Amino acid sequence: MSLDWSINKVRDWEEIAMNIEDEGDKTHHMIWMTMVIQLGGVTKDNWKDFYTRCAMIDILDGNDIYLSPEDVHRRIGLNTNVYPNEGRVKWTNRVARREYDKVVQNAVAYANELDTVEVSQ
């Protein structure tokens, strides 16, 4: 399935379209992040949650925070065909479980290395 998107409802969207060198990377990042954060677009009601989810993913993946709150607010009206929107609690629980599972996997791998070292000594 393709990822369809539109910025036609973004205030002064032509500025973003015309300034693709500065604004395009941020817009494309937000479009692709809709699949990761499970929000189909940016609205007046959800732009803070949209920003927070993007920032959380950046931090958890060990990256600097790419988008500013202003970047997200500027794109209120951006929408995609990502559906359904996942509620905050459900999304946060899923992300927390993902991070928890990573820690467990690392601990198991480390324990296996310790067992191997102990056996060989």
Describe this structure as you would to a colleague.
The chain is mainly alpha-helical and 121 residues long. It has 2 domains: 1-85, no CATH class; 87-121. The protein contains 5 helices and 2 strands, in the order E-H-H-H-H-E-H. A two-stranded antiparallel ribbon has the order 1-2. Helix 2 crosses helix 3. The protein starts with a strand and ends with a helix.
Mean model confidence by pLDDT:
92
What fraction strand?
under 5%
Query: What is the succession of H and E elements?
Result: EHHHHEH
Distance between the termini: 54 Å
Please give the structural blueprint.
Layout: E1 5-6, H1 13-18, H2 20-37, H3 47-60, H4 69-74, E2 79-80, H5 88-120
Antiparallel strand pairs: 1-2
Brief description of this entry?
By secondary structure, the chain is mainly alpha-helical. Helices cover 64% and strands 3% of the residues.
Give a quick set of tags describing it:
121 residues; two-stranded antiparallel ribbon; mainly alpha; 5 helices; 2 strands
